[in-house]
């Protein structure tokens, strides 16, 4: 059996090696397949492709498109028009992207091809991961949550992409093939109440603690959130295991029934867990202590997840952190095929048969060019022509554009990536940030990455104190004259006597934005002093709850790192919970 599995994973690696050796040709073929499959779609027909499927005709006829360009078409699909609008085969399912940036989910088409590519990514990443960190047949403690499903006005099923994937038939089979069966029964994953599901995931993880081979969630936030919760509920979990009776906090009947079936009174296990938890120092190394056979911790740890790495390392102790793959509700992009790399330098090798990729070059000199204009809060660069997958250069940054099997053509995802190198002839990308400019008052521009670096720098000042940053976001406050940057921080403990330290953090944040526009505006007073606002503990949890209420799923949740005026509700939650504020005296 083990041997058969071995050869299955080797086969996946061989296939990957073969398509990446000939990435240029595979891309041309992939485009041809997409266009043949969808040639009768109204969108393509209207652009005069007339059945041509070569890259040159495609680029000449089909314009680059953002989500808002395609929204009218997607709306018609969502409303139930069954003519071929974006795809040859009608779309019957819609995904809701997390919509972090604009504060509300976007609708995107979902189909079987997306399920297949998701499985291909999972299998590929697993095959490479398993070569370095082999696991035995067992279980995975996976903090996964299926959000709610609903019907659109036109009768299509709509849910987040992760929900659509978890509900697909292929998901279970793939999880079995890659030895990643979840400890919790389906009723838990599909339970309607997020906190009850989380509690049950923890409980099932403890029941099967000896079998657990790795611990994961889609995003690192999910793992950190789970163990922060564990710190609060561990004694209750021990009681449940000792007595064999599920806590009354789990009220959903289907979830109660399914988990109760797994519970037997087990005082020995309860004592062992109790003893281990009592012995831990500030929960350091919690994961390997309670799950002694776990080989690694797995989830997306890049981009906006970097902020949770410190806490994740703390819980993981000496276990390796392996960062997972790169994709979106709209489609997958690449897999982590170098699992030994630390999360800070992880790259994603593009699967050239998963979609047709193009890359808009973003060069420094372009950024500085005079043609630069400002629309809303985003900088529009003088556009360079997109280049193909095999034409990108190592060391350069690009905006990613793809054409998928699910009705998106030359679609601008809005992500900035950097080419770190190549795996055979396919690029290995590093995720840089969302392209949208985050913070801007006038001539300054600071991205998600700049903000992330500023916050990382300032939190270093906290390392000798008992304060720990739980989460953060920012806001460009234009209601004051001049406008100024506001950074919201939630700390793990109340900070009554840390005035001096927090003022220093505030100054440090202000100094950390080194963009010339910011520095010069600060010097002449065209931007006011940066303000650090501390929010009450639990505020970011409220924001999470707010997004869940909108239909987001925890599995896909990404905290917005900048909250604009248009995201009024989240801004309100933040402002209502401010307990203290500091103004920088750095300038
Ligand atoms: P969603 O809207 O929920 O489909 O999220 C898709 C977005 O999540 C992408 O466009 C990226 O900005 C971000 N994302 C997905 N995977 C990764 C990753 N591995 N590293 C960093 N950011 C990611």
Automatic annotation (TrEMBL):
The keyword Ligase appears for this protein: yes
Residue ranges annotated for the GH3 C-terminal domain, each copy included: 449-566
GO cellular component terms given for this protein: cytoplasm
Keyword check for Ligase: yes
UniProt domain GH3 middle: residue ranges: 349-434
GO MF annotations in UniProt: acid-amino acid ligase activity
Highest taxon of source: Eukaryota
Keywords of the record: Ligase
Family of the protein in this entry: Belongs to the IAA-amido conjugating enzyme family.
Name of this protein: Indole-3-acetic acid-amido synthetase GH3.5
């Amino acid at each position: 059996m083990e041997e058969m599995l071995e050869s299955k994973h080797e086969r996946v690696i061989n296939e990957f090696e073969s398509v990446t050796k000939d990435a240029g040709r595979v891309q041309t073929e992939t485009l041809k397949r997409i266009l043949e499959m969808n040639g009768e779609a109204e969108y393509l027909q209207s652009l005069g492709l007339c059945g041509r499927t070569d890259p040159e005709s495609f680029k000449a006829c089909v314009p680059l498109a953002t989500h808002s360009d395609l929204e009218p078409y997607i709306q018609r699909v969502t409303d139930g028009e069954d003519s071929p609008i974006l795809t040859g085969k009608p779309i019957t399912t819609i995904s809701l992207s997390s919509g972090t940036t604009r504060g509300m989910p976007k609708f995107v088409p979902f189909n079987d091809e997306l399920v297949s590519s998701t499985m291909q990514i999972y299998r590929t990443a697993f095959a490479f991961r398993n070569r370095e960190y082999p696991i035995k047949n067992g279980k995975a403690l996976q903090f996964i949550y299926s959000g709610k499903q609903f019907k659109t006005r036109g009768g299509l099923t709509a849910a987040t992409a992760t929900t659509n994937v978890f509900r697909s038939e292929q998901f279970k089979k793939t999880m079995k093939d890659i030895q990643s069966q979840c400890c919790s029964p389906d009723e838990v994953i599909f339970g309607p109440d997020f906190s009850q599901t989380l509690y049950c995931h923890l409980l099932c993880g403890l029941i099967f603690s000896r079998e657990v081979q790795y611990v994961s969630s889609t995003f690192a936030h999910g793992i950190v959130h789970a163990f922060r919760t564990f710190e609060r509920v561990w004694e209750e979990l021990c009681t449940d295991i000792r007595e064999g009776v599920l806590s009354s906090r789990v009220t959903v009947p289907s979830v109660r029934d399914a988990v109760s079936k797994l519970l037997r009174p087990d005082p020995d296990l309860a004592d062992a867990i109790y003893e281990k938890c009592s012995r831990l120092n500030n929960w350091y190394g919690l994961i390997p202590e309670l799950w002694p056979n776990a080989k690694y911790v797995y989830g997306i740890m890049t981009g906006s997840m970097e902020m949770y790495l410190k806490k994740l390392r703390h819980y993981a102790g000496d276990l390796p952190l392996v960062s997972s793959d790169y994709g979106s509700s709209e489609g997958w992009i690449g897999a982590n095929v170098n699992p030994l790399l630390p999360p800070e330098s992880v790259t994603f090798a593009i699967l050239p048969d998963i979609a047709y990729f193009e890359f808009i070059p973003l060069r420094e000199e372009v950024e500085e060019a005079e043609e630069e204009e400002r629309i809303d809060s985003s900088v529009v660069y003088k556009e360079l022509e997109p280049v193909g997958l095999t034409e990108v250069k190592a060391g350069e940054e690009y905006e990613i554009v793809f054409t998928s099997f699910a009705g998106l053509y030359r679609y601008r995802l809005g992500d900035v990536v950097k080419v770190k190198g190549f795996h055979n002839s396919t690029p290995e990308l590093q995720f840089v940030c969302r392209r949208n400019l985050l913070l801007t008052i006038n001539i300054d521009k600071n991205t998600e990455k700049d903000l992330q670096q500023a916050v990382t720098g300032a939190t270093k000042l906290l390392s000798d104190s008992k304060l720990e940053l739980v989460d953060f976001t920012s806001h460009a406050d234009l209601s004051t004259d001049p406008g100024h940057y506001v950074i919201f921080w939630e700390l793990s403990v109340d900070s009554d006597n840390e005035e001096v330290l927090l003022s220093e953090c505030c100054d440090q944040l202000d100094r950390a934005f080194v963009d010339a526009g910011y520095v010069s505006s600060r010097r002449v007073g065209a931007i006011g002093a940066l303000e650090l606002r501390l929010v009450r503990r639990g505020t970011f949890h409220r924001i999470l709850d707010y997004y869940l209420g909108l239909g987001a799923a925890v599995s896909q949740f990404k905290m917005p790192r900048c909250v604009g005026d248009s995201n009024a509700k989240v801004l309100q939650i933040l402002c209502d919970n401010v307990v203290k504020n500091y103004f920088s005296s750095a300038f």
